[in-house]
Amino acid sequence: MERDGGGCASARGMAILAVAGTVLVTLTIIGRASGGVALLPLDIIVGVLACTLLPLLLRWPIAAAVALALLAAVSPAATPPSNIATLHIARSRPVALAVGAGLFGLAAHAVQGLLHPTPGLSYGWWLVLVLVTHAALVAWGAFTRARRALLESLRERARRAEEEQAQRVAAARAHERTLIAREMHDVLAHRLSLVAASAGALEYRPDAPPEQLAKVAGVVRAGVHQALEELREVIGVLRADGTDPTADAPQPTLTDLPALLDESRAAGVVLDVDNWVTDPSSTPEGTGRSAYRIIQEGLTNARKHAPGRPVHVQVDGGPGDGLLIDIRNLLPDQPPNSPPGSGTGLVGLAERAQLAGGRLGHGVTPDGEFRLHAALPWPG
């Protein structure tokens, strides 16, 4: 489409130049006739041929320019079309071709000055006038071509900048959605695993005392309620446009660890906790948030893959020493029928730890324990 538009513009411009050239040829012929020049028939024939050749500049610019220059050497009636051809080549072709066309036109008009000298003007000044004219035509055409190329380059840069900006915005949105999806996995998987563990206790112990059944049912009800609240918060983040600073709820950090441990104990998990961090509130926000999510995911995996087995959680560290997290649990002899999951929890934790400037590892120890350990930065 751009090429067609450029062709239409060139055609319109050439039509205007053809009309202008015809007018100039007519005026030249009239001027020479009024001066008593006897070669009027030759001027008319050359002028008609020159006007006929002007439209050919669109398809064969070099050949048409050469033909017009040869006609200009025979008669001054072809001078306006020849100059138009030189200007057209300078505007549409490289500088080397433009200079060549200008020199050829200069040579043709030098011959014209010998064949048809201008009264009252010496041949030397004629050459100077012709040289200045063709130099101006080549310079003007080259400047116009360079300006057009610059404008096209600026438009292309603006278009690319808009496309790159759109790509950056799309990448930022995709990254943010990935973070939100990971957060949803961490939060809801933990909460729903608590509900699943409590519901399993109701299923396998229907003969339990009513007080215990009521307590477990209360844990299930509270867990489902909290899961719905957290899901509502995540959906609120997805819907928010980022302009309301109060739209994002504060994320849990290491100071919220006791509540997390109490929830797991209420669901029947046997926990052995060694928390040597004396002041959790002094933990950097990013480190504390990552530590909370790592411990939350570790407890979730322990409930899913080793139900009923005790879990040992150790947290240690301080300013300048970093924060160390170690979670261990014995693996069962037979893998349980765990609730379905995406299988990307540990991958997300590793990415979270890496983004925080730390590292995370996991695997089975020689003692048959599954170990999840992480080291996070804690600047001094």
UniProtKB/TrEMBL annotation:
The keyword Coiled coil applies. Signal peptide: none annotated. The chain crosses the membrane at residues 12-30, 37-56, 62-82, 94-111, 123-143. It catalyses: ATP + protein L-histidine = ADP + protein N-phospho-L-histidine. Residues 176-241 form the Signal transduction histidine kinase subgroup 3 dimerisation and phosphoacceptor domain. It comes from the Bacteria. One of its GO terms (molecular function) is kinase activity. It is an enzyme of class 2 (transferase). Its EC number is 2.7.13.3. This is histidine kinase.
